[in-house]
Write a structure and sequence with these properties.
Chain lengths: ~240, ~240
């Protein structure tokens, strides 16, 4: 039996996230359907992460354990032909049988895009948060840097999470600007439920003066969700890189 | 009575083009509906151009003749609030009563985007043509330059056009590359039905070896639609600038 690691990307606009659920179209379901058409077998797929409805992926990894013997190149081609336009397979390779897309993931990088202009952008409303007031990316970068470190991130986790260990090691965080788009990029060994969206909301509220500057460490150690900012909308969030 | 010139942009994916038609959602209809809500009057709007279903506009101009006295700044704000996210109003200004968005247009610029990589791009399928084989943008630029001049462009007009005068003056044409995106940009005093999409299809067929290089002038003077390339799909086309 082979174990195949697939790298895909997707526009999450039309999907209720990665994970299969009843009465909703998900990326996992759509990929499994294409796989079944191509391989004529219903093999189980393991994703590197759950993603929320509307969240996108520039890079997402998952593995299939399969008896199927179609070559990796042919699988890429056939899956792409059987997937809708908003999901693309870019790589397929054989990995050891024990490899697990979620458990073996060393770290992940997310980016969050903010369209930072008073005017609407009709091409970016599904791919960004629209924030009309000026954002100072250098100031926000200095604030984002305060996320770096190994902490209990409970204050940045949505209610309803079933995870017990809330400690995450954030190794990189930055805010940059590309024209009218402000980008928050963050890398960690793992993320809690809605963590990046709450981090983004907190940065925006610091910019707006609703949260005091230089208080991110305080908010973290408070382990108090109510002290962090609101959860930013999912459309601006992209899973950007997966590290094994 | 005031005459107001509006500048808008739109993602054409969800629309059957600009022009009002029965049983189809169009940009004009959607804009007129928002106008009626804001101004409580059903004023006629004149667009600078018809656009096909799926075609986008980075810039589109239209004028309303209206008894309404709401200030331009308030109109921009109120229209944006009442328009869907895929249509944005960026400017509104008073113009002389005689001004006509279509007749007074001196020239227009279109761009056509081609995603030029073997892999699909799940974020660009509604905003580009996917062409898998390598395109040489310098060679294609030298071919595109052959469109420049004042000619009867019948060979680059879709059948069914009711226009009588097929002469158009193309003043600028170029092909450039931005990473994996190849962009064809063309400016003229006016365009025939499907003209830019047929020009793009012709450039692609030259690249593919289906049409001989350096034959664009010949194809133009043949006034024979069958000698030009196929009509490229609408999704890659953007009305980019309007000059008055």
């Amino acid at each position: 039996m082979r174990n195949l690691l697939l790298t895909i990307s997707f526009d999450g606009s039309a999907y209720h996230g990665w994970q299969v659920q009843e009465n909703a179209v998900t990326v996992q379901q759509t990929l499994q359907d294409a796989w079944e058409k191509v391989c004529r077998s219903r093999d189980n797929v393991i994703g590197c992460s759950r993603t929320d409805a509307g969240v996108h992926a520039n890079m997402y990894c998952c593995n299939f354990r399969t008896e199927n013997e179609i070559s990796c190149d042919k699988l890429i081609h056939a899956l792409n032909a059987n997937l809708p336009d908003d999901i693309a397979v870019s790589d397929c390779r054989e990995v050891p049988y024990e490899f697990h897309a979620r458990y073996d993931c060393k770290s992940k990088e997310y980016i969050y895009k903010i369209w930072n202009k008073p005017e609407k952008n009709p091409f970016l409303y599904k791919y960004s948060l629209h924030y009309k007031y000026p954002l100072d990316e250098k100031f926000l970068d200095s604030q984002a840097k305060q996320f770096i470190g190994k902490y209990d991130y409970s204050a940045f986790c949505a209610a309803g999470s079933s995870v017990e260990d809330m400690v995450r090691n954030v190794t990189d965080a930055e805010v940059t600007r590309d024209g009218d788009i402000v980008i928050f990029r963050v890398r960690a060994d793992g993320f809690l439920y809605n963590m990046v969206r709450i981090m983004t909301g907190t940065l925006i509220e610091i910019s707006a003066g609703k949260i005091m500057p230089d208080t991110i460490k305080e908010i973290i150690v408070s382990v108090d969700r109510s002290r962090a900012g609101a959860t930013a909308r999912p459309e601006g969030l992209f899973l950007n890189k997966i590290f094994y």
